[in-house]
Amino acid sequence: MMRPMSTGEVDESRQAWLRTVAADVARLDRSSSAERAADILRRSITEGALPPGAQLSEVELTEVLEVSRNTLREAFRLLTHEGLLIYKLHRGVFVPELDEHDVVDLYRLRRVLEVDVVRGLADREPELPAARLEPLLDDVEAAEAAALADRWAAVGTANMRFHQHLIGLADSARMDAMTGRLLAELRLLFHVIAAPRELHEPYIARNRALFDLLEARKYAEAATDLHQYLTDSEVAILAAFRSR
Amino acid sequence: MMRPMSTGEVDESRQAWLRTVAADVARLDRSSSAERAADILRRSITEGALPPGAQLSEVELTEVLEVSRNTLREAFRLLTHEGLLIYKLHRGVFVPELDEHDVVDLYRLRRVLEVDVVRGLADREPELPAARLEPLLDDVEAAEAAALADRWAAVGTANMRFHQHLIGLADSARMDAMTGRLLAELRLLFHVIAAPRELHEPYIARNRALFDLLEARKYAEAATDLHQYLTDSEVAILAAFRSR
DNA sequence: CTTGCAGGATTGTTCAACAATCTCTTAGCA
DNA sequence: TGCTAAGAGATTGTTGAACAATCCTGCAAG
């Protein structure tokens, strides 16, 4: 194995580089047919092409996706464990229909995890490097730009990414995975709600405000702000949901 | 459908009975070959018969479990998403080897979830029915009995169940699922630790103490106690892990 | 000591077939 | 009319065999 630099000092940055390469390799390698099929289905579901309650026929999808039934079923399993599909034995797979109870459940978990991450920054990363916040800023600006272009679905996507990146500050692989699931399920809810603008617009500014607090390292303030933010969002979705 | 009793009064107990029957039916129905194979493998892994790092050969297991390769691979997928197996593309499935970083990660999540559940009881269930605590008491007593019989693996199992039931107090399907995963992963760690007695013994009494606090509805106290409990446990496991 | 190259073994994927189960329709009956 | 039962058709669950793609091992060459 070659060693472009061998002073003990740079060992840490070398470790970091190795990790990024390993991540790249993993991303390229992951292209099994099942996962590619899952990618396509995932997009169809989160974009609303497959609405909640829809049944996914095996024979039909094998033709469309050009994979065998076995491979398709593996893709189904993948999405099942992301919460984007549910299996009913001997009946097939369906896009879940979430109800108000699920909204409450999802938001409860979001609050617990996200607030803890932000609050925990005070202890764990009192001197959080500015670079760690960059992805968050990108998401904030992406949402603002999308709003100007009236692309409200894109605003929702940017908002999701903002929260995923927020959780990413915790450096916890399991929190990242859980959040991915939670947000994916949340997207299921958005499609039964008529007004995307009213739903997403208020949170553009709030994301910006939250980012500012993080940048100023006012973590305690940010945490209480985020708590209220999520509760407001929950209430809004519940209201929109009831009047659908 | 027959109605053994039809007075309006017993309607609630009848509902409860219907739920238990439905649960039984679901448990029997869920017996797809893949899930049955997964059950067997899950036990083998959590009981340590398949140690961390072990590779699971497809052809070998198809013979042992008497299922086809495709069905076996579905079982693999199930366990992969529980964190009990990892896929390496074109190389096979392996029992994960967790390291100290994983211990920290797992305990961080346990702390966040469990402490929040207990603390949340004050608001959500100020008058928690005693019946809801029964499963916890059963687990406490099971651990105490197993300890007297020197069955330390059983103590560990009862301890796991205690914490699972604790999370169950939140009535959150997603918290239950997450906790199931977290505890399953935790079991992976126990098998690389030599002394099960030293590991589990201190927590028998602490579970009892925690139960007493819950029964007395001293939720705030219980929460801080639980926080310290989990931190102590984390430290103990890390220490045992480093000196393995 | 490293590099390159068989070959054998293992995983990834497909296909066709059959078994098990569900759903829907229809027939029978009060 | 309304309910129950039976059966046909469709869909899912599972299997086994086959082939392709990839990985691992050992050996030979530099």
Give a description of the structure.
Helices cover 72% and strands 3% of the residues of chain A. Chain A is mainly alpha-helical. Chain A folds into two domains: 33-94, Orthogonal Bundle (Arc Repressor Mutant, subunit A); 100-242, Four Helix Bundle (Hemerythrin (Met), subunit A). A three-stranded antiparallel β-sheet of chain A has the order 1-3-2. In chain A, helix 2 (33-46) packs across helix 4 and helix 6 runs antiparallel to helix 10 (202-215). Chain A is globular and about 55 Å long. The N and C termini of chain A lie far apart (61 Å). The A-B interface holds A 29-30, 32, 70, 73-74, 77-78, 81, 89, 105-106, 108-109, 112-113, 116, 170, 172-175, 178, 182 and B 29-30, 32, 70, 73-74, 77-78, 81, 89, 105-106, 108-109, 112-113, 116, 170, 172-175, 178, 182. The structure holds a DNA duplex (30 and 30 nucleotides).
SSE layout and pairing:
2 copies of one chain form a homodimer.
Chain A: H1 11-29, H2 33-46, E1 55-56, H3 58-65, H4 69-80, E2 86-88, E3 92-94, H5 100-124, H6 130-148, H7 152-168, H8 173-190, H9 196-200, H10 202-215, H11 219-242
Chain A binds a DNA duplex (30 and 30 nucleotides) through helix 4.
Adjacency order of strands in the biggest sheet of chain A: 1-3-2
- The total of helices of chain A stands at 11
Tell me the structural class of chain A.
mainly alpha
Stated plainly, the CATH topology of the largest domain in chain A is called Four Helix Bundle (Hemerythrin (Met), subunit A)
Strand content of chain A: under 5%
Please estimate the helix content of chain A.
over 70%
Average of pLDDT of chain A:
88
**CATH superfamily placement of the largest domain in chain A:** GntR ligand-binding domain-like
What is the CATH architecture assignment of the largest domain in chain A? Answer: Up-down Bundle
Major beta-sheet overview of chain A = 3 strands, antiparallel
- List the quaternary state of the chains: homodimer
In total, the number of domains of chain A comes to 2
Low-confidence stretches of chain A: 1-9
**Distance from first to last alpha carbon of chain A:** 61 Å
